[in-house]
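sry for the spam today, last one i promise. struct tokens for design, 212 residues
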């Protein structure tokens, strides 16, 4: 299965987590590509907390023009991991813009990650937001840093891999066929899902769904 790891990072923490997650998923036998999504015009580095553009974009919720998704094809992407820093309690404008841009075009299983300074469960909010945009979010994790949360990140990736393995029940369209409109339509059509949350308050929803 082809997994797309999509992230934005300003000072490098999210990038470190996203690249670690990508490498670990790849080491578990999946094809992985990473996409560094960023605004076409980047934010000024200094005093980011007080940057009027950041404050305006967050408060207004307006989308920004993004780059970095040139090779991203929602039709061939079998699963999606989305990682973002938290800015003022929410996902960053580039990632919110990515969600808006691909809203309704990506029904593959998605997993969301946030990095933040505070140990607050921001990722569950991102999960809800992504679901409102039509993403099929199956897991979420809030991270403070890769070092302090290494075990949780490893556990998360292992659960993502297990979830994806149980998702692809035997049949998978070859990659060259996935571009055909009929195959794309079939892959996007709703399939029955039998979802249950595993015991222990895990953040990955264990689903058996019949999507290749
Ligand atoms: C403008 C701005 C707003 C932020 N707001 C929050 C916040 O509401 N809660 C929090 O825990 N961290 C907040 N942070 C800290 C970042 O979420 C945190 O440092 C993040 O991991 C940085 O990721 P990066 O290194 O990939 O850019 C904020 C940082 C910036 C620059």
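last one done:
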């Amino acid at each position: 299965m082809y997994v797309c790891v999509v992230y934005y990072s300003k000072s490098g923490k999210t990038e470190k987590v996203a690249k670690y997650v990508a490498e670990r998923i790849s080491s578990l036998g999946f094809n992985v590509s990473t996409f560094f999504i960023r605004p076409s015009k980047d934010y000024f580095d200094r005093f980011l907390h007080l940057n009027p553009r950041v404050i305006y974009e967050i408060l207004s919720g307006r989308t920004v023009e993004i780059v970095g998704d040139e090779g991203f094809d929602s039709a061939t992407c079998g699963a999606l991991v989305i990682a973002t820093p938290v800015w003022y309690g929410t996902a960053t404008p580039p990632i919110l813009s990515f969600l808006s841009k691909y809203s309704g075009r990506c029904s593959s299983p998605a997993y969301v990650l946030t990095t933040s300074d505070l140990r607050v469960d921001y990722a569950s909010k991102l999960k809800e937001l992504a679901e409102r945009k039509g993403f099929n979010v199956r897991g979420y994790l809030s991270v403070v840093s890769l070092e302090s949360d290494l075990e949780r990140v490893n556990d998360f990736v292992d659960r993502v891999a297990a979830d994806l393995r149980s998702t692809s029940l035997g049949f998978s369209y070859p990659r060259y066929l996935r571009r055909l409109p009929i195959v794309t339509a079939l892959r996007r059509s709703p399939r029955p899902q039998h979802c249950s949350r595993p015991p222990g308050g895990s953040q990955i929803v264990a689903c058996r769904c019949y999507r290749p």
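The chain has one domain: 2-209. ok im logging off now
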